[in-house]
Amino acid sequence: MPDEREDERPDEREGAEDTPPEISAEEMAARQARLAQLDLLRRVQRARSGTPEERLELAFDATDEVLNALLDNEATGEEELTIIARRRDVSHEVLRRMAGDRRVQESHRLRRLLVLNPKLPASAGLRLIPNLFLFDLVTVLITPALPMEIKTAAENAILQQYQSLPLGQKITLARRGNGGRLLPQMLNDASADVVRAVLTNPFLTESTVSTAVWKASHQHVVVLIADTARWANRNYVKMALLRNRMLPLGRAVTLVGTLTPAQLKELSNDPTVPAQVRNLVLQQMKKKPGGAA
After folding, report:
1. DSSP string, 63-74
2. How many alpha carbons fall within 13 Å on the CB side of residue 146?
3. What is the mean pLDDT of the chain?
4. Alpha-carbon torsion 82, 83, 88, 93, what sign?
5. How far apart are CA 212 and CA 224, in angstroms?
6. Who is most buried in 97, 120, 126, 228, counting CB within 10 A?
7. How far apart are CA 58 and CA 232, in angstroms?
8. What is the rounded distance in angstroms from the CA atom of residue 148 to the CA atom of residue 291?
């Protein structure tokens, strides 16, 4: 994977590229209608030997013959290839060919755009994943419609480098990342700052948080979850917290006061609940035998 240091510019770290805006479907149709007025053979010839302006216009052509002719032309540059890579109406085979093109493999922009194109065959995208930057991979994870094989490969690539990432990148990743294995990894990080950041992640679920409580290796994981109302008030998370021996007694007092009678009974009969917490539960049951707050 390309070296991605903390001192890179923000746009490089985030994977943002200086690419032209996508044109509307109406403008695309109008361009293709104008091109279709020219004979196909003439368009192919222009794609193979035309001026830069002609090649740029032909990058919007609707036919594989013209697009393949552009790829045959060594003079076709990144600007024309960028247009093709961003299009969602290009055939799988043209995109597959582009993925193996030297010009694409040497351009971060083109690699990224191709992987993010849902029309690119997964087998071709998998060969490009190892050459993407960290936050390109995050973008892959959160982009709808991409093949699951691509998302899984992106998550694997992130996990492989996760432990060696600088703290700042871990925190940014914690806020933006998703994935079935990535979020649990970040939620059990040795840094409280990373855990604090991932608790704000919009992709986080109650199931992931409650499982993190059960598997927590660091007390700050348990404490931060207990102090985050968004999660501590969820039933499964709350019950997991009260069964965790790393939960400070002061937090347990607060949580026990919010339990329902059924939850109090469940915990009072559970031998895995720490003795101090069970005593709090029994006291709460005596205090409000008809129900808890």
Report:
1. -HHHHHHHHH-T
2. 25
3. 91
4. negative
5. 12
6. 120
7. 57
8. 47
